[in-house]
Amino acid sequence: MMRALYSGVAGLKTHMQRMDVIGNNIANVNTYGFKSSRATFRDMYYQQVRGASVGTMTRGGVNPSSVGYGSQLSSIDLMMGSSSFTSTGNQLDIAITGEGFLQVQDPEGNIYYTKAGMLDIDTLGRVVDTNGNFVLGTSATSGQLNSNDPSRSIIQITVDPVEPQASAIETTVLGKALTITATNQTNLGNVSFTFSASATKSNGDDFVAGEPLEVIMESGNPNIAVRLNQNYKFANMAELGTAINNAITEANGGPHAAGSFTFTLDPDFQNLTGGEIATSKDNSVRGKIDTKTLEDGTIPVDSDWANYVTLSYGSAFSGTGNTTIAWTAAGTAPNKTLSVTVTTGDGKTYTNANITDGTQAFELTNAAATDPEDRIIIKVPGFETLTDDANAPAAPTDPIGNAIPSSPSTVLGLGKQTWTLDGGTEGGPQTYENLTGISIGSDGTIIGSHPVHGRLVLGRIDLANFANPMGLEQTGNSYFQETANSGAASLAIAGEDGTGAIRNSALEMSNVDLAQEFSDMIITQRGYQANSRIITVSDTMLEELVNLKR
Question: Which residues of the chain are under the pLDDT cut of 50?
């Protein structure tokens, strides 16, 4: 009878322990990197009632008879299966897509292992987890890993110092090399210039005689607007630069933080007005042509204006000398087209072979040029329709006129776009805060982006693997500790030697299966209930026994 009581008590104890395991699993259903456990039972010792005996010729064998004393906890096993991943959008969150653990070190030097990849970088540039413990791996120096082999050291993020640099822009305008440079080495020189030309200032007042320009600067705005006096004639780029710097000093209440700005143009211009420097004007010349009926169309003479063909040159037009225009027909009406070729005195050829009805402006390009602005636009007022003329020559190729000698464009057109200086920096020591971005590769390599150094290797998170991961001991804080049965940690680069790759901006979720846990909870409850009944019934039977004396 007492044995039954002991069995019931033992059963209650084991089922309570199993419920403790289930409760811990459910409590950690949303703990990143958590690995669930399971409780298993085994029976306890037995009291032998009768021993076994072997059978003889005259008597059969007898089996042993034993009475047990209940159950006890056999094991609490770690379930190390991988779980699903959740995307976090945090570049310092990582998940391991297979075997392997992150290595962390506490302030006392103890090494722990974890699947929880919520990482951060402290103010001293060290990679840490959410508990403030150091994540171990391989550091880098000057953008190069200190070791190609996996290692176990605190990952220290370092960025090389930056040499001071002056802001500048180097570009081309009309095929000429334009350079704008700040003299002071500071990031405050990363400004933009915009140019415009007008006869009036920004406040509506007229520019006075001899006044070259004004600048408009807004506090906190890196743009410097330069308004040129369209009638003032600048001798060269040096005079323009001096006038701009003087105006900046006046508008800024003193020298600019970037120092002065140097403007150079190669080859330099000579004697251009503010309007020619800032704007792009139409460099047109006209040449009179004879009235002539062609197979491909008619240039009418119903007004004096119709007697002229107008040539407009692109900003990079490079031809010189007398310009000859040749017209050639193709096809039959109503699908006729004109092919027009212009040849300059220095032998350059500009063509357009697909002019159709209603076209009054023909754009001719120089196929040998690299600049699309090396072109000519021909306007023939009154030219409307391509017609057939039976009296015209079968294949007219005669020139129909000569233009006034042409010359390349002399305008700069600085007002066409914004000119932005960059690359300026004060230099000095750099830290993690100076990086513009950071990410972690599938092999654990930490990559940073720096505005001066560019792409940098900052370190590598190395993994640890075990022959028997289920032999690890849980220590809390999502940590595991090495034991005699887990085997020694084997270091590896993520994705190698049987370890999983690292997934950036993701975390491994808990592998707790709620459906299984709730089912186990019901079974455990029923087992506990049944064992309690053993105690109740045994107590009733003992009560009857005691009552026999009455």
Answer: 281-308, 382-409
Which alpha helices (H) appear in 253-301, and where do they start and end?
274-278
Is there a contact between 508 and 32 (Cβ–Cβ < 8 Å)?
yes
Q: Which of 208, 210, 261 is nearest to 237 (CA)?
A: 261
Distance CA 339, CA 378 (A): 13
Q: How many CA atoms lie within 13 A of 131 on its CB side?
A: 17
Task: Tell me whether residue 113 is exposed, middle or buried, using C-beta atoms within 10 angstroms of its C-beta: 0 to 12, 13 to 18, 19 or more.
Answer: buried
Q: Distance between terminal CA atoms of the chain?
A: 20
pLDDT value for 549: 75
Sheet of 308-313, strands arranged across: 283-288, 308-313, 375-379, 361-365, 349-355, 337-343, 321-330, 399-406
Element (H, E) at 460: strand 454-461
Contact 69, 3 (CB under 8 A): yes
Interacting residues of 482 by C-beta distance below 8 A, sequence separation 6+: 111, 113, 466, 472, 473, 488, 489
Token pair for 22: 């289930």
Would you call 103 exposed, middle or buried from its count of C-beta atoms within 10 A (0-12, 13-18, 19+)? Answer: buried
Classified as helix, coil or strand, 84 is coil
Q: What share of the chain is helix, strand, coil (3-state, %, to 5)?
A: 20, 40, 45
Q: Over the stretch 120-129, which tens digit does the pLDDT of each residue have?
A: 999 999 999 9
Q: What is this structure's pTM?
A: 0.58
- Determine the pLDDT at residue 334: 58
Q: What is the per-residue DSSP string for 389-412?
A: -TTS-SS---EEEEEEEE------
**Residues 228 and 197 sit within 8 Å (Cβ to Cβ):** yes
At a CB cut-off of 8 Å and minimum separation 6, what does 181 contact? 166, 167, 168, 261, 262, 264, 421
Contact 162, 425 (CB under 8 A): yes
Q: How far is CA 530 from the centre of its chain?
A: 62
Cα 183 to Cα 120, 178, 425, 447: the distances in Å are: 39, 16, 12, 33
For residues 233 and 284, give the distance between their C-alpha atoms in angstroms, rounded to a whole number: 21
Q: Strand (E) positions, 55-146?
A: 65-68, 71-78, 85-87, 94-96, 101-105, 111-114, 119-121, 127-129, 134-141, 144-145
Give residue-wise pLDDT tens across range 285-304.
433 333 333 333 333 333 33
pLDDT per residue over 37-58, tens digit each? Answer: 999 999 888 888 888 889 889 8
